[in-house]
């Protein structure tokens, strides 16, 4: 592989918790005077954030309902964003103990397994997500196809990876992550001109995507080089 960074993505954050870590202004659990409005506030934080505050909100929600699979997989996604993929995997697995066919949790677990380097496990989890119960939150089945494409590329199953990313883009042409990941696989195949086009499309859709921007710079540089140059022949 030529070594561009892929953007493995989790799904919408949906709720969280194992160790309660209350922050200033965030109650440990609702009392008799803290009604549905407080629970909704925790839910909104858990849904919208990917930082330690999200973990605290999800932990509070788990105190209210420890058997909500959405909370567990959102917690896992937040932990993954913070770089704690081992703890994230535990949370996704807990969600799947509660709801074994939950599509979003299976796709989120796919992303986490990819981050942990278990790419065959990731592919298997993404396939299970595609065949699961169809609950995707704010995401869609394209999330599973795109995440699977990333792990297929790491397994050097490049044509399958291209097919997976293109399926994601057929489902959602505005999915910037999938354009970036398609470009990364094209780059791995030394199809640099096509990679440039894919990275550019990712940036058109999300101008703040620094990963796609850096990948675009590298792909443009490589596209200008003769195919038999030393730079091209020494990266495998």
Major sheet: size, sense and barrel closure? Answer: none
Tertiary shape: elongated
What is the number of helices?
A: 12
Helix/strand/pairing category? mainly alpha
Percent of residues in beta strands: under 5%
Task: State the end-to-end CA separation.
Answer: 6 Å
**Secondary structure: number of strands:** 0
Instruction: Work out the helicity level.
Output: 55-70%
Average of per-residue pLDDT values: 85
- H/E element string? HHHHHHHHHHHH
Radius of gyration of CA atoms, rounded to a whole number? 19 Å
- The low-confidence runs, each spanning 5 or more residues with pLDDT under 50, are 11-30, 230-236
Describe the protein's architecture and organization.
There is one protein chain. The chain has twelve helices and no strands. The protein has 236 residues and is an all-alpha fold. α1 runs antiparallel to α2 (52-64) and α4 (85-98) packs antiparallel against α5 (103-115). This is Tetratricopeptide repeat protein. Keywords: Repeat, TPR repeat.
Helix/strand layout:
Blueprint: H1 36-48, H2 52-64, H3 69-81, H4 85-98, H5 103-115, H6 119-130, H7 142-154, H8 158-171, H9 176-188, H10 192-205, H11 210-223, H12 230-233
Helix pairs in contact: 1-2, 2-3, 3-4, 3-5, 4-5, 5-6, 5-7, 6-7, 7-8, 7-9, 8-9, 9-10, 9-11, 10-11
